[in-house]
Amino acid sequence: MRKVMLTGDRPTGKLHVGHYVGSLRRRVELQNTGDFDDIFIMIADAQALTDNADNPEKVRQNIIEVALDYLACGLDPAKSTLFIQSQVPELCELSFYYMNLVTVSRLQRNPTVKSEIQMRNFEASIPVGFFTYPISQAADITAFKATTVPVGEDQMPMLEQTREIVHKFNSVYGETLVDPKILLPENEACMRLPGIDGKAKMSKSLNNCIYLSEEPEEIQKKVFSMFTDPTHIRIEDPGKLEGNTVFTYLDAFCRPEYFPEFLPEYKDLDELKAHYKRGGLGDMKVKRFLNNVLQAELEPIRNRRKEFQKDIPAIYEILKKGSEKAEAVAAETLKDVKAAMKINYFDDMDLIREQSEKFSE
Ligand code: TRP
User: Fold this and answer.
1) Is the pTM higher than 0.90?
2) CB 275 within 8 A of CB 232
3) How far is the centre of ligand 1, averaged over its atoms, from the C-alpha of 158 (Å)?
4) pLDDT digits (tens, 9 = 90+) for 100-116
5) Which of 148, 155, 201 to mutate to test the pocket of ligand 1 (most atoms within 8 A of CB)?
């Protein structure tokens, strides 16, 4: 079977390090294995509009930011198709047919939608488009016959709903759609990278993000202000690792080679953690190490971004080409879907013959 990767992001802001360890880094690695027959990376502007209907300018401005972040991280248009969701109208058509296979109560049970409704104070007036976005996401995934969808944990309910739609469609209309598999981040820290304040999730509205394009001084300022263990007051005090943001970030970002480079007196992260727990290791020393690690990780990304920023029309051209390719692939799937549903009347010679016979009796 063909191996196809698809994933995407809503363009509501620049991407941050939470996006990076949650999915972006993995996408680039997977891209570079050469294992996939096709890779589609989608800027989900239409989905972003489901809860930003009154602010299309925000979405419009952020498409290029997300595209630059993608390219800066190493997504390569020669290997991965980068495209804009709204430029592939076939996705709307697929969604329209899938809507008949999903109940209102099933949508109401989707935990991610539930919590987003709360976060946005939508309780009294949920936009229909927002409420049904899991169905449109099923269209995004199935249109490209995706087999692998690397996303964060919050997207698990979307993948479950997609698989239900696939199974329902295939059982009602015959085997047509491909069942996708979710690929979750490699460890707990990558799964739920907290904001620098230690709060649950990095989010622009909480002002606790480190962006991929952040300048070195800003990175350092943010790392030095990070939440650690509030009971670890004097250096001699034993420290806690649970909920200690600095260590969570090290779990997400540290590579073995950073120890000889930046902290040669420790063998590895386990040894550093053991010392912290025992007492005698100050927060500042760990923060300085984390700062070095993050600077090393983010510098090449920031530099590549600056290169790409020099030719913005070329980026739009990449997205245009990508959207054209994506549309061609989605159109094939839509054709299969319509044939399976037998709503391809003009190509259906059996139907035309059958009806002729019926009326000639
Ligand atoms: N829901 C994703 C997000 O909030 C974006 C997205 C839209 C997506 N369609 C998708 C992700 C399909 C993976 C597959 O960032």
Assistant:
1) yes
2) no
3) 8
4) 999 999 999 999 988 88
5) 155
